[in-house]
Design a protein that fits this description.
Structural class: alpha+beta
Strand order of the largest sheet: 1-3-6-5-4-7-8-2
Strand content: 25-35%
Radius of gyration: 40 Å
Protein name: Sortase
Helix content: 25-40%
Keywords: Membrane, Transmembrane, Transmembrane helix
Largest sheet: 8 strands, mixed
Number of helices: 2
Shape: elongated
Number of strands: 8
């Protein structure tokens, strides 16, 4: 007795002739010759020239970061705009970067940031500047029990008086129970 062997259903297999194999190889070679140069060209496409402000919306007096890219990120470029003037962006980690502060008195509005690369290419983005508004006082959110004025002392004194009265009643109640036994 042996181990039963299960046979798989037979499949029809077509054997290619030498001519068909040769034609298939020629088709593959033709496809490679036609499409590989297109892939090589797309891989050599010029890097994007761009400029970004992060965050793109700031209050007057706040700082924001610039990140830019030119064809050659090994050379410094310049970003210009009304609120910041002309700022050099220096190579760092494969990009051109800088940190800039919007002047405190700058008017609110949208300003165009323009990158000028050493090779003459440009890119731009928009910086949104908001007016700097400081609140004159804190929000009215409650009774102000912890505020430093006379009411805090009154509340603390009233709470201590109530605790003392409760303790005195507890002591008197315990004495009466013991006396009644």
């Amino acid at each position: 007795m042996g181990i039963p062997v299960r046979k798989s259903p037979s499949r029809a297999v077509r054997v290619l002739s030498a001519r068909e194999r040769q034609e298939g190889g020629l088709k593959m070679l033709l496809a490679a010759v036609l499409f590989l140069p297109a892939l090589a060209l797309s891989a050599q496409a010029a890097p994007a020239v761009f400029v970004e402000a992060n965050p793109s919306t700031v209050r007057a007096g706040d700082e924001f970061s610039l990140r830019a890219s030119c064809d050659d990120n090994l050379k410094a470029a310049t970003v210009t705009a009304d609120p910041i003037g002309s700022v050099p962006v220096e190579p760092e980690f494969g990009f051109l970067t800088a940190t800039v502060k919007v002047p405190t008195g700058q008017r609110a509005g949208d300003y165009r940031l323009t990158l000028r690369c050493p090779d003459g290419k440009t890119a731009s983005t928009t910086l949104h500047v908001l007016a700097r508004v400081e609140p004159s006082r804190g929000p009215a959110t409650g009774g102000g029990g912890t505020a430093p004025d006379g009411t805090a002392r009154l509340l603390i004194g009233g709470g201590l008086t109530a605790l003392t009265a409760a303790a005195a009643l507890a002591v008197m109640s315990a004495r009466r129970r013991q006396a009644g036994r």
